[in-house]
What does this fold into?
Amino acid sequence: MADLVGKVAIVLGAANRNNMAQVIARRLAADGAKVVVAGRAPEALEELAAEIGGHAVSHCDITSEDDLARLANAAKDRFGGLDIAVNATGWGLLKPFLDTTREEIERMVALQLTGAMLFYQAMLRVMRDGGSLIQISSATASIMLEDHAAYMGTKAGADHIIRCVANEFGKRGIRANSVAPGFTATPMTGKASATPGLIEAFAAEYPLGRVGTSEDVAEAVAWLASDACFMTGQVLQVNGGLTLRRNPTNAEIGASVRAARKAAAAR
It folds into this structure.
């Protein structure tokens, strides 16, 4: 367990029940932090805030500077300051490169690159010295996954902006790092996670023999948020060694799913 007693945290992206951001928020609260959870939909946020003794900020859009300023000020007004800020938003668009529309590209850039930078700016304006800024990135920011270019490219861009933040704000003792999971069964991966054979196709590429969980990511976030962390400007690859290898191809995923269906039909 990390020692986060006396710390105040913001976790953005927690509006879906039991998604990665909610798991992270629960872990930070369990380790002693006062947590402000934020996102667009109010109901799940209010439930989570009540559960962990935190505070909810709903109707918060990462592409809105006004919403982000309101979020940062909520932590300051409710709990007296801000020490930890986690951006766990994302849009897992899977679409062939030539079929990805301009509208989809612009939406992805707004959410995962422009929005991410605006989030960092808003948080840094109120964050206390010695704080921690954490971006949830992806292993696919450095290794390939087919039909995922817009997502991968913007995550990679956000990782590099994190390095810029680390370089500029280190003089205040502020650390800025990314966490890069691989395939994780979450509400964002949705139906895909429940497809027989799909997870097995990914797990075969993990040296540690399994895909990751939101709890694995939350463990890393808790350490990055703690004063015990002496690291900044880095991408922490919390993906069981996946980046030593590769993601499966679409053909391999399809073959694994077909094999699982065939085996199920034979039972």
